[in-house]
Amino acid sequence: MVAVSTPDVLSRIRLTVDEYLDADLPEGWRYELVGGVVQVTPVPGIPHDSVIEKLNRLLVQYAERRPDVIAHITQRSAVTLLDRSTAREPDFAVYAPSEMADKTGKTWKDVTPSLVVEVVSPGHEARDDEEKRRDYWDAGIAEYWIADPDRRKLTVLARARSEWNKAELDDTQVYRSPQFPELEVDVAMIFRG
Fold first, then answer.
1. 16 HSE (CA, 13 A, CB side)
2. CA 69, CA 59: separation in Å to the nearest integer?
3. Is residue 30 within 8 Å of residue 50, measured between CB atoms?
4. What is the pLDDT of residue 5?
5. What sign does the CA torsion over 69, 179, 120, 118 have?
6. Residue 158 — φ and ψ, nearest 5°?
7. 8 A C-beta contact, residue 79 and residue 93
8. What's the per-residue H, E or C state across the chain?
9. End-to-end CA distance of the chain
10. What are the backbone dihedrals phi and psi of residue 10, each rounded to the nearest 5 degrees, phi first?
11. How high is the pLDDT of residue 143?
12. Which end of the chain is less congested by CB atoms within 10 angstroms, N or C?
């Protein structure tokens, strides 16, 4: 097991996905493994967390009504791409019943979420919109939502045959996902105070 006491040394250490998932990393930071190198970012602030909390609450309520569609929601997942030594940690992920049917001995490498959500942090727009878009496509994610509190915009990327179908919604719109029947996401609500 890799144990690191300060995050400033992480950029000099190369890890496999297994080593990363087992690593003992310092608290107070967020991490992702990209190409074998650990990327370190500060823990998001309250506005960022507020958007996550609202979307999470909406999806938890939906999961209670539709356990046939959503089996598990977590803020602790890792979406792994073994061929690139990459483990993305979305703000939260949603798993279908088929992915969570037999959890015995499973790790995050063994399951693929049907939806991942990222809330944009200032200065990281390109990472969420470009880099993670590619990685989540390669991981087989069905839908990727990018919530941008500064622009009050929800970008929805839905998997099509060979690329993402992209929809950009502002705070006057409601999103209805074909993947989650009867779910309505009021964009204004997720960015409200």
1. 6
2. 11
3. no
4. 66
5. positive
6. -115, 135
7. yes
8. CCECCCHHHHHHCECCHHHHHHCECCCCEEEEEECCEEEEEECCCHHHHHHHHHHHHHHHHHHHHCCCCCCEEECCCCEEEHHHCEEECCCEEEECHHHHCCCCCCCHHHCCCCEEEEECCCCCHHHHHHHHHHHHHHCCCCEEEEEECCCCEEEEEEECCCCEEEEEEECCCEEECCCCCCCEEEHHHHHCC
9. 42
10. -65, -35
11. 97
12. C
Tokens of 111: 């399951």
Q: Which residues pair with 176 in a beta bridge?
A: 184
Per-residue confidence (pLDDT) for residue 106, from 0 to 100: 76
Tokens of 150: 């500064």
Taking residue 117's Cβ as centre, other Cβ atoms within 10 Å add up to 23
Q: Are 144 and 118 in contact (CB under 8 A)?
A: yes
Q: What is the mean pLDDT of each run of 10 residues along the chain (193 residues)?
A: 71 81 81 82 83 95 97 91 84 92 79 94 78 92 95 95 95 95 96 85
Residue type (1 letter), 85: S
CB atoms within 10 A of CB 135: 21
Phi then psi for residue 42, to 5 deg, are -65, 160
